[in-house]
């Protein structure tokens, strides 16, 4: 007879702690020994959840929206507004937080808007933005690749895709980062919504060839609030995760001999490095939230009704039951999600990250990390895998125009 465990608050592991941010893979390994595939965690103080660290269990959940819906409204009604993770988890009228017919309506519009992005044109956009960013530091011999390159690159490229002005986009980016950090997420959410309201109003007045205009004009007939809420996950997934993907990939290339050689003609490509990062250190480590409507017995554990069930993408990708350790050409990771809520923007995200890495390494092929890898600080937070800084040094280049004629 099965006697499933019912965990208490003292059993829960804090995903928001600096200790977890510093050594998550050690924590996942310890979780696996103590709890198996389903782990009692806290997303912030007093916010319990279950973290899924078994790959097959995660795939089962992601493909079973009937038992694991994404609508959090029953959960959030008892969560105070000042809860730092509430803006990240709260219900919004968009595809990420909806089920059934509403999910189809929202997702169809998002897929249509994103599918119309010209990937060849996007490649040119990344180059146009990356080149002057690199020009600002290429002659100095040092840089922080987050503040000086990856973050402004991702932010400006997403602005271009969505047809957003720099002023509005800056407020959007600040709001998104504040929500991810969880330090003052409610204020970040207000900043985000106010900025996107201006963007949508501007596109209704002056349409353009961009994702926002295509959402405004979609036959689904979205009102302003619905358009705003479609843009929230596009910005959320397009700025913070993409710049972290660029940074985590550069860190791998700069610290791993298999990739470091590729700077000077090695056999492994930037795409190989990206896929390895998406397995080992995906920029969104824990996400894909679901909320069971009633208690569910899974893997001999009772999952409480309406309590968040979070997929640990990083832990599932490294589940010993499925991981063979060879990531070259292997794209079976869960970094883009799976099932009906899988990310619809993976092509664009891959392109931005790959081009962003290549532009930098083409310009500065002898770039090196300025500190020891264990001196790097990882930003605390239950959802992301994000460095605070990535300091590098290099031989100052010749005048910029001489190595990049465009």
From TrEMBL:
<dbReference type="InterPro" id="IPR036396">
    <property type="entry name" value="Cyt_P450_sf"/>
</dbReference>
<keyword id="KW-0479">Metal-binding</keyword>
<keyword id="KW-0503">Monooxygenase</keyword>
<protein>
    <submittedName>
        <fullName>Cytochrome P450</fullName>
    </submittedName>
</protein>
<dbReference type="InterPro" id="IPR002397">
    <property type="entry name" value="Cyt_P450_B"/>
</dbReference>
<keyword id="KW-0560">Oxidoreductase</keyword>
<comment type="similarity">
    <text>Belongs to the cytochrome P450 family.</text>
</comment>
<keyword id="KW-0408">Iron</keyword>
<keyword id="KW-0349">Heme</keyword>
